[in-house]
Specification:
Elements: E1 3-10, E2 13-19, H1 24-28, H2 41-57, E3 67-68, E4 74-75, E5 82-88, E6 91-97, E7 104-108, H3 123-126, H4 133-150, E8 162-168, E9 173-179, E10 188-195, E11 199-205
InterPro entries: 4-PPantetheinyl_Trfase_dom, 4-PPantetheinyl_Trfase_dom_sf
Keywords: Transferase
Organism: Rurimicrobium arvi
């Protein structure tokens, strides 16, 4: 069972990363959802693996109740959980929060992101990060996690998801603070990021002592 990592960001949330090595039927046989309308095989496996991982973390997770809100954000309209899923084959990640909105993003290393960093980082933000693939990918995943946490349309990653600071916890773990002016001019959210040898991962946290 290739569970890459499982952890509790705090007492109200759970998260996990799964390394997909199984065939599609492994996930399809264990989740009560259909993926017939997804034609691309890899996308179908990612979809099923994400649902499988939600159910792995919370065996009472009502997969059948997942719907999209008016902003196309996957939600449980009647609760009891808030959640976020991300996949970058062959990895899938998810987070479940009992108290409020959350967001997670995982991205495998891809050098092409260096050529488009100007599309999601302002010059001021670029000065905050070393111009290396892991660090730029880290900034991207933090903004993607913030986008999912916010759950709104019409988002400009440079204007509406502004990185205002970050700090190291360890060499591989960072804390990033992002302003969310579409919610409120003073709104900020903290994200924890992990740099692995194969991917970068960021997710929403609420720890007060991580504030920047």
């Amino acid at each position: 069972m290739p569970l890459f990592r499982e952890w509790a960001p705090d007492e109200h949330s759970l998260a996990a990363v799964w390394h997909i090595t199984e065939e599609e039927h492994f996930f399809a046989d264990q989740v009560p959802v259909r993926a017939d309308t997804i034609r691309h095989g890899k996308r179908r496996i990612e979809f099923l693996a994400g649902r499988f991982l939600l159910q792995y973390l919370k065996n009472d997770f009502p997969l059948h109740a997942i719907a999209k809100n008016p902003n196309d954000k996957p939600v449980l309209p009647e609760g009891p959980y808030h959640f976020s899923i991300s996949h970058s084959y062959p990895y899938v990640a998810c987070i479940i929060d009992e108290l409020g909105d959350t967001g997670i993003d995982i991205e495998c290393e891809r050098a092409s992101i260096l050529s488009v960093k100007h599309k999601f980082l302002t010059p001021e933000e670029s000065e905050l990060f070393p111009d290396t693939l892991p660090d730029i990918l880290l900034a991207w995943t933090a903004k993607e996690a913030a986008y999912k946490y916010q759950g709104l349309r019409g988002v400009d990653f440079r204007q509406h998801l502004r990185i205002v600071g970050w700090k190291n916890i360890t060499e591989a773990e960072k804390i990033i603070s992002i302003k969310l002016p579409l919610i409120d001019d003073s709104a900020k959210k903290t994200f924890k990021s992990l740099i692995d040898k194969d991917f970068c991962l960021s997710y929403a946290i609420r720890y007060k002592h991580y504030k920047i």
